[in-house]
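Lab notebook, page 48
Experiment: co-folding of the full assembly
Goal: obtain a model of how the components sit together before planning crosslinking
Operator: M.T.
Materials (sequences as entered):
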Amino acid sequence: MDSTKITTDVDSLRSEIRDKSVRVIDVRREDDYKQDHIPTAVNLPLAHLLSDDSPERVLKLVNSMGIDDETPVVVYDDTFGALASRVAWTLEYLGHSNVTLLETTYSNWKSIGLESDSVIPEIRNKEHSLKLQPDILATSDYLESAKTRDDVILIDNRERLNFLEQHIPGAISLPYRTLATTDKILRSKDDMKRLLENRGVTGDSEIITYCGSVGTLSGLAYYALKSVGLPNAKLYVRSFKEWKNLQKPTEKQEDASYWDLSAE
Amino acid sequence: MTISDLKQTAPDSVKSKINWARMEEADNFAKTVKLFRQGKYDEASFRRFRLQHGAYGTRMTGDYAMVRIKLPAGEIYPDQIEKISQLSEQYSIGSAHFSTRENIQLHWVILEDVSEIFRGLAEVGLTSREACGNSVRNVMCSPLSGVCPDEEFDSTPYALATARFFLRNPMAQNLPRKFKFNFTCCEKHGMVRMVDVGLIPQIREMDGSTQRGFKIFLGGGLGNKSFVGHQLEEFTPEEDLLYTSIAVMRIFDRLGDRKNLARNRMRYLVNDMGWEKFQNLVLKERAIVRATQSVITRLNVDHSPNEIKRPVRISDESGSDIIPDGYARWLKTNTVKQTQLDYRSVFLTLEAGDITASQLHALADIIRNFSSEGKGRSGFEQNIVLRYVHEDDLPRLYSKLLEVGLAKSGALTMTAPIGCSGTTSCNLALTNSHRLAKEIQRKFLELKLDEDVDLTDSSIKISGCPNSCGQHGIATIGFFGGGARVGKDMYANYQMLLGGRSDGDTMLGQICLRVPAKRVIPVILKIIETFKQNKKSNDTLKSWIHRIVNGNEDSTIKSIVDIKKILEPIIVPPTIDDDPDFYLDYGSDTSYHTKTGKGECAA
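Observation: model returned without errors.
Model output:
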């Protein structure tokens, strides 16, 4: 597989579904899935995965979805690709390399009139191997030591106001909304490249992404980085919630009442 | 196949006829930021460059900028609103801010992302070029121009043509200081005497034929020191509009103070020179301009009429005639009848000009569905105006606005105060004027003061420092921020001015007294109470205060000093132990201290 292929476009997915050559994972809530979903998709609500995302348990889930080492997997959600990214990253961490994100959200898929149904497919269990990829994971301890190196870039993908209020020292702010376009979960490669280059996110630097709590928004950013071929990206999957709970140092923008500029 | 090919755009989306943008300016900006960060561009030249492109500095940091998007003549189209909604989520704080000069501001933008905003703006024909810096700032026009019952003709095409003429024009790239044009509809809707060049459309009868022209006011402006503009001549025919503008700018360019940054707006030049001398210079200069300009130097005024087409609805999704609560109040305090039969203009008040990305998104569709001209106008008061709304559509429009939190009443009353950005983002601010404006609006709507007709024509305007971005000088009740202390404990404190106005009787407010931030609301309420006790039968708060400040009042309250005496007991500071909250500014939970950085208005 083309290692820079991050998303699967709508047409390719439709033909892969027709060829029965793909496992589609819908990560929305079970009720939504039951109502309708992309044909042949199986359901793995993100909350269900996160209730225990130990490798052993995830392996069982993967097997039960009929995925082996060779099965191409496409993941989608209705949350601008962030939840799908978190699931895709988990599969990747487990050692499954052939996983991509649907280029758009389920709402968009439906709004342009593409097919959906409510059939729940019958799945035969498969056997997936376990080859953990620790290179794509950042833990708090790892982050703390990596931060001291010059060639490490730390990216905060939460919204700007949250960043101003509090963030991990040294992080740069790249809100998740920046990564998408109106109808795609990720910008085109050229647009993404230009955006990141302007922000100094280039070359061989090691790049670590984080967000609020469970690594969804930053999961999307992880794939954004990969989409322009940046080779060395890691997800701080426990993100700012854990960082704060561990009472590690944080930084804020002082002397300004920016919250009062918000109309929320 | 791409997804966008399959998506249908709304059939009735009107688009701007003028493209204000240049895509290459985005790339150029990105490159220049890189050079600056690499130290290849010195601080001062970079700042000038940045401001020329509409990116202003941010409070206490060099990492962020505010991008000020110009809306020439206040016009804004649905696709532009949608784009700004998206940009605010991507690069700003998920909200955008409508200014008092028909700009939309995106705050807390990372300097390196500014060029991405320029790209987005260029996609919908908008620019922030010359929105800051020593240039011709956004050319304003009354949001009611074209629909105002009191106007002689619509000045919008002239405002647009003036904006087009000066944007990127070499003669306007390095003025001594910023330069502002305000076009309006009529005296009442005002704002022409508080600006460098203010223009009211006039029609003159001559030898049996009618001639279009303007009443032009020069040398006014609000600031640390404010001045009221002077009328140049009885009537300036439309052919002379451009020549007059060029003449005034040439004089300013030549004689304006380029050294003393605090006194270099044109109003200081006019004041120092004396009006008559300045007036003569302008008239002479205009003769020279008229004689020497090439024939191709002219305003490109587009007189083609806007299409007025009531949006067609296939089905009425509401399916019922139930009018939601609050409709009558909203109709009374937010809408005005137009010259055009059966149409109204609807004012949307935003708390201190702030609007969320999702509200903007909804607004674009609301404009498509309810405005028969298919576009919106920004107003003078951090607000938005939807014009050409058919009377029959008003209840449904109200319901729609209610759904997205844009149906706040009192848009055309004193309950919609102006508050500059204050300490939320401005380097010069001493107080959180922005939040104070919001607090006043919330409280006054709760008290239903918007329904009190005595208060309708009054205004409250608040600046966070003496520099007048909140226009405190032309408010019925105006405030500008500062600090005060009891012993070593500081608190936010506002100077209050009374009796300012920007209509045909324009005058600046007179200083009354200093009011602690946390006493502003009780003080205003006390003024209203005193007014109610002393008013004459036809009085409004504005007319009553106007008599007092002009020494024409004969009741027990005769002067500002009398008002001051009544208010003094309210403003006495409590001890910090008795009332710790008194010592915190709005929106802050840490002890108050004044802290300012360098302003860039005069960079």
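Interpretation: The mean pLDDT of chain A is 96.
Next step: discuss with group before ordering constructs.
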